TrEMBL record:
One of its GO terms (molecular function) is cytochrome-b5 reductase activity, acting on NADH. GO terms for cellular component: mitochondrial outer membrane. It is a single-pass membrane protein. The keyword Iron does not apply. Its main location: mitochondrion. One of its GO terms (biological process) is ergosterol biosynthetic process. It catalyses: 2 Fe(III)-[cytochrome b5] + NADH = 2 Fe(II)-[cytochrome b5] + NAD(+) + H(+). Keywords: FAD, Flavoprotein, Membrane, Mitochondrion, Mitochondrion outer membrane, NAD, Oxidoreductase, Transmembrane, Transmembrane helix. It comes from the Eukaryota. Belongs to the flavoprotein pyridine nucleotide cytochrome reductase family. It is an enzyme of class 1 (oxidoreductase). This is NADH-cytochrome b5 reductase. Its cofactor is FAD.
Length: 331
């Protein structure tokens, strides 16, 4: 994620604020006015997930949904306990991040993950006094059957991320969930902003995916995504596609701590000036800001969470900009 825990000021903005397009989007729309968009062909770590269900099975799902038959969930929370899932595929996304696909116990099961929720992983080494627990937000669609995808960045001396990266196809990982986060319903807010760093993008992607797969959800979305280098940008091809398809509803701003010479986005860390320029104003009606990232980002942008179940007061740049506790959610 970020190389330092303290944020320095970002370099001066090189582009003026942009507005949402007023016309309906179409694939292939120009991105020349998009801050940090793909104008220079920057693909970051964009990649495509393997298709997990056929059109026939999806049609069958719609029929079952219409008559009130919900698919069986592998993870049901409560007292169900841990489920051991077998690793079936791995994919190197960049120098320190992998996509890993885990098989569900039954091929016709869905994961049971909801919008927005996470899962908990568990690992205990032979010499460990106690098990290591870490939450992750799956990046596979909640309707996909038979598998669950995780996007995991390996951290130096990170016991869980190292363990997951060392897994071989056929190995298993203990998983529990779902862990409810922010319950989402279509059009719950008129405009949301997502401020993320590193793999803090995964709960944001989960939320964005749910919004834009629902034709009845008209929520506007602004993404501010900070990373160290261009190669660290995860899921960028997905966000580029959304910018092309929904220019009137989705926009993304990228900031790099170590930008290359040809970089057209922001440099340095996410700054107060950038947030003031691109976020919905705090006096706007029915908005929500979501924040997720490493401790340094959380401290600088919104303040850390008090505990997994307690948000704590908003501090940092969002407090300085006038946003209230009710307008900010910390993943």
């Amino acid at each position: 994620m970020f190389a330092r825990s303290a944020f320095r000021a970002a370099q001066p903005l090189r582009m003026h604020a942009r507005r949402y397009a007023t016309e309906s989007g179409a694939a292939g729309s120009s991105n020349t006015l998009l801050y940090g968009a793909g104008a220079v062909g920057v693909l970051g770590a964009g990649y495509y997930f393997l298709s997990g269900s056929s059109s026939a099975s999806k049609a069958e799902d719609k029929v079952k949904e219409a008559i009130g038959i919900a698919p069986k969930a592998a993870l049901t929370g409560g007292e169900q306990g841990w489920v051991s899932l077998k690793l079936s595929e791995t994919e190197d996304v960049n120098h320190n991040t992998k996509r890993l696909r885990f098989e569900l116990p039954e091929k016709d099961q869905v994961s049971g993950v909801q919008i927005a929720s996470a899962i908990l992983t568990k690992f205990k080494g032979p010499n460990d006094a106690k098990a290591t627990l870490r939450p992750y937000t799956p990046v596979s669609d909640e309707d996909e059957r038979g598998f669950l995808d995780l996007l995991v960045k390996k951290y130096p001396n990170g016991p869980m991320s190292t363990h997951i990266h060392d897994l071989k196809v056929g190995d298993s990982l203990d998983i529990k969930g779902p862990l409810p986060k922010y319950p989402w319903t279509a059009n719950k807010h008129d405009h949301i902003a997502l401020i993320a760093g590193g793999t803090g993008i995964t709960p944001m992607y989960q939320l964005v995916r749910a919004i834009f797969k629902n034709p009845n959800d008209k929520t506007k979305v602004t993404l501010v995504f900070g990373n160290v280098t261009k190669e660290d940008i995860l899921l960028k091809s997905k966000f580029d596609e959304l910018e092309n398809t929904y220019p009137q509803r989705f926009r993304a701003f990228y900031v790099l701590d170590k930008p290359p010479k040809d970089w057209v986005g922001g440099g340095g860390f996410i700054s107060k000036e950038l947030l003031k320029q691109v976020l919905p104003e705090p006096k706007s009606d029915n908005i929500k800001l979501f924040v997720c990232g490493p401790p340094g980002l959380m401290k600088a942008i919104s303040g850390p969470k008090v505990s997994p179940k307690e948000q704590g007061d908003v501090t940092g740049l969002l407090k300085e900009l006038g946003y209230t506790n009710e307008q900010v959610y910390k993943f």
